[in-house]
Amino acid sequence: MKAQNWVQLRERMVNDQLRSRDIRSSNVLNAMREVPRHHFIPETVQHLAYDDRPLPIGMDQTISQPYIVAFMTEQIQPKPGMKVLEIGTGSGYQAAVLAHLGCKVFTIELIPELAQRATNTLHHLKYEDVNVRAGNGFLGWPEEAPFDAIIVTAAPEEIPPNLIDQLKDGGKMVIPVGSVSSLQYLKIVTKKGGHISTESLMPVRFVPMIDRDVE
Ligand code: SAH
Known about the structure:
GO molecular function: protein-L-isoaspartate (D-aspartate) O-methyltransferase activity
Function: Catalyzes the methyl esterification of L-isoaspartyl residues in peptides and proteins that result from spontaneous decomposition of normal L-aspartyl and L-asparaginyl residues. It plays a role in the repair and/or degradation of damaged proteins.
GO biological process, one term: methylation
Bound molecules: S-adenosyl-L-homocysteine
Keywords: Cytoplasm, Methyltransferase, S-adenosyl-L-methionine, Transferase
CATH class of the domain at 56-204: Alpha Beta
GO cellular component, one term: cytoplasm
């Protein structure tokens, strides 16, 4: 497909899937308009890159629906220079959106093949402020903590305590919580004056966050 056509598909995605729902932040809308999502999608389904749905990225994993990426990004109110931890790198797309917004991104992926592929894609697209690590996200990234914000894109059954510890005071974490078989809720966790508050935003469906070592 020609470059211009991808641009049109992205423009349509922003209008029909994001603006028409409740995404209002102009910086988030701009990032969604500019980051080339199709580069993060396997060739077999690349033509569906800007559809209103999640897509398979191999290894039984998925890239989230564009709306969910925009919604989660908007929740942390990204600003240039913010240090953000992402759990579940997957394709690297969410990390690219955050980097495009000027965040310093640290992202952890359990499956080494996906971590490697995302590293290559991000490098190819010149997103330099993204650090990808193959590891278990339940441990967080203690050497780089605390983080201004944390975005978790796989669902644990409980909020991992290490991630709460690694959140800066005044920081926000957005995380889907619940088991695969039951309903998961997207939650926003806020830390203020050492006090933790949690709010449920909407029902969602994410792949499970798995607590094991990297092979
Ligand atoms: N944010 C991604 C989509 C993530 S899909 C994107 O933009 O494409 C969820 C990812 O979380 C999967 O790749 C899965 O392998 C990963 N994952 C599951 N459990 C994990 C864990 N404990 N630590 C890190 N990553 C994990």
